[in-house]
Every structure is written in C-alpha cells, then in structure tokens.
Predict the structure.
Amino acid sequence: MKYNIIGRKVNLKDNFKERVYRKLGKFEKIYSDDAEAVVTVTVEKNRQTVEVMIRDNGMMYRAESTALEMNDALDAVVDILGGQIRKNKTKLSKKIKPESFDKYFADEPTGYDEIAMDDDDYSVVRTKTFSVKPLNVEEAILQMNMIGHQFFMFRNSSTNEINVVYKRKNGTYGLLEPAE
C-alpha cells in the first residue's frame, strides 16, 4: 500500500507518521499492493481531525474522526475502517483479496463482531421519483434544509448538470458534481 500523509495547519512529526504506518499496516494484507491511503490531518483551534481515504480496485473506503489529540483521532478512524470492513466482509471479499480475510479476522478479538454488524443485503425498499428543477447551489441548500434531509439532488442552473448538495458532520455543506 502506498501512503500519502498530509498535514493542514500542522507539521507532522515522524513518530505520528510511523504510528500511521503501523496502524494502517494491519489493513495491508487485505488490500492489493496498488492500494493508496491518503491520510489528512487538520488542526483547528483545539480540535484535531484525521481523515483516511483508501482507494483500491475502483473502491474507496473513507473514515474521519475529530478529537483533542491526533493520536486519539487516528485510533478512532482505524476502528471505523475496521468496522466497515467487518460489516461488509462478504461483499468486499469479491472486490479485495479474499484469502486475506481469514487471516485478518483471526487476529481480531471476538465478541463485538456480532453487535449490529449483521450482513444486510443492500436491497432497495422504496423508490421515489421527482422532477429535478434547475436551481443554483444556494437555492438547493435552502430546499434541502426546508425538507429536513441530509442531501438534495438538483440540476445546477449554471452548468445544467445533475448535482447533489449534502450536509457534512461538522455542519458545513458539500457539493457533488459529475466528472468525465
């Protein structure tokens, strides 16, 4: 796995980088050698946010956590990624190294896999259709807030493309745009 460690508003020390290699190293046996892990550390006032994004075979795995100490945030992110892998191991085994799952889960402590980590299938239980109106981004955010959703799909009036606005965990907004 290739690592890219980025510090925003902070100079990262070598011992933190070594900790990242050690913590994420346990996932190396699951992902291919071409996998890329991007670790972004952002410091704002008294909060430190660690975001890990792993790309492998067209799939993307992402986790983010904020804590007072970046080491605590890194630990939480690794736990989140491990939980995502455990929860979806049957579906992921088709995409990433299937032989490594037995080794990875043999190393993990037992007992918490079963708690809310069922192997749900991703079945669609409801389909909604609606007209996609041309709006600007600000109008789409307003509409999303008015209906109380976490995301809203709309046709961007300036680009005439289908876009999605969404509310992030920290209360800010994001915009998804299609790429060619």
The domain at 2-107 is CATH 3.30.160.100 (Double Stranded RNA Binding Domain). The beta strands are 2-8, 36-44, 47-56, 59-67, 134-135, 151-156, 162-167, 173-176. The mean pLDDT is 82. The two ends are 27 Å apart (CA to CA).
